[in-house]
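Please fill in the sequence for the structure shown.

STRUCTURE ENCODING:
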């Protein structure tokens, strides 16, 4: 495989979109969400991340960002129906951007694609969910949420990383192994 950060970014973006979809599906499984979109309210609040974007925030961060964007561009917050429709678009856009950065980086430094994308998913969880959301006022301080909720959010983000890497690898192939200068692999 020839390295090409642009193609890696495209593959990563597609993987990020698929990963965003998979993490929400996974969250429905671990959160006990019903098929009709209902949920078990007590379990959802304490153990699981929210069911729209898999973050620790009580209200989906993607819906909050959509509404804040509308306020700054349209001069008004979104209605609840508008939030339900546009929030997922922000969720998938974030996944595509994170995936594109990951895909481009994996082309340049193949070791970033190690462990099937698990480190990538964990890094997104740590930087975006645990640090970014509280820093931007989109979630309470992380210590106010139970450990089970952090673990469930981490789980959804690991699914995101695994899926993103799976799609990236399907489209671009495994990241090439790089050997130190002057050192060639030995055949067995």
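FILLED IN BY: designer on duty
SEQUENCE:
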């Amino acid at each position: 495989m020839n390295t090409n950060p642009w193609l890696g970014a495209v593959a990563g973006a597609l993987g990020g979109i698929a990963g965003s979809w998979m993490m929400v599906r996974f969250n429905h499984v671990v959160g006990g969400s019903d098929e009709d979109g209902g949920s078990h309210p007590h379990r959802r609040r304490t153990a699981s991340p929210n069911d729209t974007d898999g973050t620790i925030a009580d209200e989906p961060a993607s819906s909050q960002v959509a509404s804040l964007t509308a306020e700054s561009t349209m001069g008004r917050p979104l209605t609840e129906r508008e939030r339900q429709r546009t929030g997922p678009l922000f969720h998938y856009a974030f996944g595509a951007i994170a995936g594109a950065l990951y895909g481009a980086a994996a082309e340049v430094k193949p070791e970033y694609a190690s462990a099937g994308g698990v480190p990538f998913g964990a890094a997104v969880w740590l930087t975006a969910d645990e640090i970014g959301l509280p820093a931007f006022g989109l979630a309470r301080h992380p210590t106010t949420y139970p450990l089970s909720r952090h673990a469930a959010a981490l789980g959804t983000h690991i699914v995101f990383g695994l899926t993103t890497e799976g799609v990236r690898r399907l489209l671009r192939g495994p990241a090439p192994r790089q050997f130190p200068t002057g050192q060639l692999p030995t055949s067995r």
